[in-house]
Amino acid sequence: MAKLLSDALKYELAAEMGVAHKIQGRDYGELTSRECGNFVKLALLRAERARL
Q1: Who has greater pLDDT, 3 or 47?
Q2: Is 19 a domain residue?
Q3: Nearest to 45 by CA among 20, 16, 18, 21
């Protein structure tokens, strides 16, 4: 999935989740597994809404 989303969209999703401060640059190592799961869910919701 990482290759399918632009860096700008990834940052926008992280900001919406309130974890943008944890993903400085391309390092997502500071995110917990729960935050990563929520990140994926949010990305999928965005994709589904864009299709409608």
Answers
A1: 47
A2: yes
A3: 16
